[in-house]
Amino acid sequence: MNFYQNTNEYEILDASQNNSTMSNRYPRYPLANNPQMPMRNTNYKDWLNMCEGNPAPLSSPSQLLKVAGNIVPRILGTLPTFFPGIGPFVPFLTFFTGLLWPSGSSGNDIWEKVMKEVADLIDQRLEENILRQATANLAGLKELLQSYNSAFATWEAGNATPGLVKGYMESLHRTFVQDIIGSFTIPNYENILLPTYAIAANFHLMLLRDIEIYGGEKTPEGKDGLNFNPKDLNFYNCELKKYKELYTNHCLNTYDKGLASEKEKGWVPFHRYRREMTLAVLDIIASFPLYDARLYPAKNNKEMSVKSELTREIYSDVINSDRFGVVPPYNYAQNEERYTRPPHLFTWLRGLDFVTNRLTSGSYSYRWYVLTGCQNKYSYTKGNGTIPGPFRGYPVESGGSASNITIEEGSYIYNLLPKSFEYISPWYFTTNIAMITFLLTNNKNDLPAKFYGSLVNQPNLPIVQTDFDFVTNKELTGPPTYNNYSHILSHMLLGYDWNQTGGIGTHGYSFAFTHSSVDPYNTIAPDKITQIPAVKAFEISDSGPGYVVAGRGDTGGDIVWLKNSARLKIRLTSATPNKNYLVRVRCMARISGNILVERWSLSSTKNDTFGVQGTLKYEYVNTLVTTFDQPGVELIIKNLTGNDMYFDKVDFIPIDIPIDKCTKCQFVGGVCTCSCPTLQSLDTEKEIVNSLFVE
Question: Which intervals hold domain 4Fe-4S ferredoxin-type (predicted)?
Fold first, then answer.
């Protein structure tokens, strides 16, 4: 079943497991008073002071969003694992235990709230006996996790033996495998339990990561490790890969079934479910590949040694979706085209052009000035200028007036406040947007707000403001600020055109947002692995047909599909001088073939050809070892065969970060088998590395 109809020059990859677009409910409430004064070039704080009364508070995020929203930024490294009274960095498992069982909470309150909120979202009754069954084993898990965390901290302090910690690791592993995961796969309730399943899976994979980090003879800090037998460590790595795949597939399959079920109810619940489950589930499982400490070596269990990003786009609910004709409940093709974007290279919003029309009541006693047209202007990451998007709505030629805002490079909209009038029968168009306040940042200062429209000279009638409960600070404890925000505005969509017949002059509006983890400059870190998604390329079609397609839902964003001779080009910010990086490509091919990988700059180039196995699974291909300190440096990947290839991400690994040689461990016929190249002496290793250096 294809949930996306935007097929023009794009094609959907495995569309039955697609998450390229998603959405959220928005609270709407009347303001006590209307701001009635000019606001151009006004700072947001000054604007608040000028208002005749305080604006209504932002709606609080659900517990569902709070839990997932506090897990993901810790994995991405945009927030530290911090607990008051303990310190700025605590082990991930300690932080997650405190997050799900906070001090002062009763029993399994957080888990139960998450389940109940999902039940409300999908309008399914959660029976009390099912709730008890799902949470029956959580009390024991909490105690075991707390004991493990204490044992680990005591061992780190030198006051416990390795055997104590190893015993807790083995007990926890068995508990997850035998009891916990089964608690969240109760037949007919898998959808309600999906976010809690993803949370439990995150706990388990983090435990297996701990075993890999600390299980050897030495820890990354050089202290004595837990000293597992190397064969046992290989077994646990097989377990990590096995359960990572099992958990990911369960989440995707359950998400797909839930999406299909919501589609039967209409486009609005379908649209909302995509966003909620993306934030609560898909964002979490997109991080699972990072937990393999052999592929992504870790310094400790308190932070990730990876600079990673989420490039997925989420969408607000459609403003005016409750007005007749704006969102036909079962016209999926029209709604998708109007209120979402097809898969695309990652974009940065650079400006908005608006058209305003004056609408009047029958007696001309009221005149409203409302938003009736919009065009986005955007750029690709380090791309070649600004690109105008398609115009939506009534053009200026219809009698409207034009206005615009420009968003300078390095500036971003971290919040927006749309306002409209309440519905007044029989004039449907009163609920069209009359004003939007855009709050901007350059990550150093709170920039002056920019505005569409004004409430000055508008009717003195009740105002409705729209806010979005997923647009918060990173901790999800309050509204975003210029130096602490979770998302930025990436696109605005207006769902009314000349051909619409339903609703008298009523428009629908939706807003797209991207995650604050995305680096606008493709900066390569000197001391950790930098992961750059393929959709952050600025060009994919200059030498052959390249497309952006939606993946299964576990990649954290769209992926790039290259046909024969097509190539993708990622422009980078110059890295640390004279530092070499291994370029590792995460890609998938239907049939085995070759890719050309090139480091290009005006001053020098380096390239080579590498093979890709046709496994129809993502694999890691080690390619060039080279520097990236040249001005204007780019990475180019070209498909050299006649077979389709799909590219997810590119890893830039500092050459001084050791990658374990036994990365290919898997169960074969129930037996853990690892492919481990023969270990070289240290001197030989240095000779090999030095031979790969370039000037």
Answer: 651-687
Does residue 404 surpass a pLDDT of 70?
A: yes
Closest CA to 541 of 565, 571, 570: 565
CA proximity to 12, closest of 552, 566, 512: 552
- If you average pLDDT over residues 59-76, what whole number do you get? 90
- pLDDT of the residue at 361: 73
User: What's the total number of domains in the chain?
Assistant: 3
- The angle subtended at Cα 40 by Cα 37 and Cα 46, nearest 5°, is 70
Cβ-Cβ contacts under 8 Å for 499 (sequence gap 6 or more)? none
Torsion angle defined by CA atoms of residues 624, 625, 626 and 628, in that order, rounded to the nearest 10 degrees: 80
Which of 543, 636, 648, 646 shows the shortest CA–CA distance to 591?
646
Do 476 and 595 fall within a single domain?
A: no
Check whether residue 371 and residue 278 sit in a common domain.
Answer: no
Clarify whether residues 175 and 272 are in a common domain: yes
Residues with Cβ within 8 Å of 182's Cβ and at least 6 positions away in sequence, in order, are none
One domain for residues 195 and 149:
yes
| 541 located within any domain | no
What does the alpha-carbon distance between residue 171 and residue 165 come to, in Å, rounded to a whole number? 10
Please measure the distance between the N-terminal and C-terminal CA atoms of the chain and give it in whole angstroms: 52
Asked whether the CA dihedral 69, 73, 78, 79 is positive or negative, the reply is positive
Give the whole-angstrom CA distance, residue 338 versus residue 327.
9
Shared domain for 38 and 179, answered yes or no, is no
pTM (two decimals): 0.89
Q: Do 48 and 67 fall within a single domain? A: no
- Residue 618 belongs to what domain range? 572-692
Contacts of residue 687, Cβ cutoff 8 Å, sequence gap at least 6: none
Query: In this structure, are residues 142 and 150 in contact, taking their beta carbons and an 8 Å threshold?
Result: no
In the chain, % of residues over pLDDT 90: 75
Task: Give residue-wise pLDDT tens across range 214-225.
Answer: 999 999 989 999
Q: Dihedral angle at the C-alpha atoms of 336, 339, 341, 347, nearest 10 degrees? A: -170
Q: What is the mean pLDDT of residues 430-455?
A: 95
Q: Alpha-carbon distance 550 to 343, whole Å? A: 6
One domain, residues 627 and 666: yes
> Does residue 158 sit in the same domain as residue 293?
yes
Q: What is the pLDDT of residues 314-337, one digit of tens each?
A: 999 999 998 888 999 999 999 999
**Residue 299: exposed, middle, or buried by beta-carbon count in 10 A (0-12, 13-18, 19+)?**
middle
Round to whole Å and give the CA distance between 20 and 3: 10
Q: Is residue 535 part of a domain?
A: no
Exposure pattern of 136-153 as b/e (b: 16+ CB <10 Å)?
ebbeebbebbeebbebbb
Query: What pLDDT, in 10s, does the model give residues 574-597?
Result: 999 999 999 999 999 999 999 999
What CATH number has the domain bearing residue 585?
Answer: 2.60.120.260
Residue 10 has pLDDT above 80, yes or no: no
CA atoms of 347 and 632, how far apart (whole Å): 20
